[in-house]
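Let us work through a complete example step by step.
Step 1: write down the sequence.
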Amino acid sequence: MSKLTPTPGQTVGPFYGYALPYPKDRELLAPGSPGSIRLQGTVYDGAGHPIPDAILEIWQADADGNVPQRTGSLVRDGYTFTGFGRSAVGNTGAFTFTTVNPGPTEAGAAPFIAVAVFARGLMNRLFTRVYLPEDEAALAKDPLLSSLEPDRRQTLIARRDPDGGLTWDIRLQGDGETVFLDFSGAEGAEK
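Step 2: predict the structure and record it as tokens.
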């Protein structure tokens, strides 16, 4: 029996314009809805330059900490919160979502939004999280955050804007690299 050689990997982008974007993909609820906030930021490469052709996906609990079990993520009706969104970054690497502050999924837990990053040069998508900055006690006892050095931990915590929105930048490598999760090995392993 001959040994098969694996097919070489390919990057995950930038092949997005044809099938991935869809109407209102970045609106987990309609802008201006009660409780809506803006999650915004910029995706940077290792040299600190914005990446103009990445796509982000987010999954999150609703404001009460319930993980939505509804269908319809690809067909936005303006009022059903499905907990899923997708945003292509602009030419300046900037992204934005209209969403809600996620609630904790269990008492005392730190609320977070799960994020997947697709970009040119990546052989696989990257997984990470963005945490709300307010509940310092919950952040301190979060299993993922507490396993990280303080400077690495800060890469996962958003800044609260004066208007109530969140700003969080993603750095794919280099100084201030965002912590990414490795699900291929041990649970919760950091990249």
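Step 3: interpret the result. The helical segments are 136-141, 143-146, 150-153.
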